[in-house]
Amino acid sequence: MSAPLQTPSAFEAPQDSRVDLLILCGEHSGDEHAAEMLAHLRVEKPDLKVACLGGPRLAATGAQLLYDLTAVSVVGFIEVVRHYSFFKGLFERTLTWIEQYQPKHICFIDYPGFNLRLAKELRKRGLSRKGGGKISLNYYIGPQIWAWKAKRRFQMAELIDRLSVIFPFEVECYKDTDLPVEYVVHPFARDGHRFPFYYDATGPVLLLPGSRVAACERIFPMLLSGFRRARQVKPELRAQVIYPSEGIRAILETILQDFPEMKDGVELIEKSDERIGVQAALMSSGTMSLAVAMSGIPGAIAYRMNAWSYRLSRLLVKIPYIGISNLLLNRPLHPEFIQDAASAENLSAALLEACSVEHAKQAAEGSEALKAALHPKGASQAEAWLLRGLN
Q1: What pLDDT, on a 0 to 100 scale, did the predictor assign at position 317?
Q2: This prediction's pTM
Q3: How much is the pLDDT for 78?
Q4: How many CB atoms lie within 10 A of CB 382?
Q5: How far apart are CA 135 and CA 218, in angstroms?
Q6: In which residue ranges of the chain is CATH 3.40.50.2000 found?
Q7: pLDDT tens per residue across span 8-65
Q8: What is the CATH superfamily name and number for domain 21-191+377-390?
Q9: What whole-number distance in Å separates Cα of residue 391 and Cα of residue 377?
Q10: Which of these, 107, 111, 165, lies nearest to 135 by C-alpha position?
Q11: Which CATH superfamily does the domain covering 197-374 fall into?
Q12: Mean pLDDT confidence for 170-199
């Protein structure tokens, strides 16, 4: 069980007399996507004054980091309720900072449970343009209303000034609202984008349990159990685990203590710009699973959440797959094993199948199809979209 989250203290004042842009994102993937957008945006606007609730990648681009939200990312209804007092305090401190320092523009990045609630309060207090104020609200990487909470689109139209989405089919989801929606090229499909790994038939197996604490605690043991069973058939297999932060590394090391026989077969590697070659992957269903698919790497998706959160999600979420690559292709490029189906036996069998020439060929074909789908001709880049809103 992860430790209780600590309520943050008041955020520091802006480093400059003005705040041109406040960026709000709550996950490692959002931090990376926002940082890439901001780095390109600074080419056009080098003097842009930016503050953020985000993570280390945004801070590295020169944004003033008010609070590292990526260090406290949780998922699931039960998990959010468990940490209610923390998020309530975080919300109030964020709202106080915005009210006091009045950023000209805000750009929300995904994270709808927090961001849309904040947008609603900004309108209620007359701070946002939709509430009669001066702060423009931009939303990059919209919530997945095609999966659940579809009616959010009407709330967004009332609160947000403009929205950009990263999957082509999402634009159609808002056709019955007056919200300006634009498709921008997915960050993974940008020209020159480098994935952190590539296919190598002689490389290790990649284990990706995700970037959230609670998810890692549930999913990493499953991946290790599947990998351990696969090694009983192919003892030469070895694995690498990419972790996004020291906090996640500590969790991975603790879990590995329950698998002493894996000590020499599993290596923990900090996420970096250095690329590694892998032959297959066992992974969570998050953003990195799409990166795996677009890198042409075969594998399987495993996911497990709190039992009550899962029961609730089954009632609300009506989609055939949980992996984005599978949804985009409308077929199981990577087979999915959810809750009890994510057994050591099933994951081992899927991993051994993935370590084959046939599955490597299928993964390569899927990669090309995904790249074509996510970079249609004439689509804008995220920074160009945001720049139009800042002018």
Answers
A1: 63
A2: 0.82
A3: 45
A4: 26
A5: 40
A6: 21-191+377-390, 197-374
A7: 777 999 988 889 999 999 888 899 999 999 999 999 999 999 999 999 999 999 999 9
A8: Glycogen Phosphorylase B; (3.40.50.2000)
A9: 25
A10: 107
A11: Glycogen Phosphorylase B; (3.40.50.2000)
A12: 92
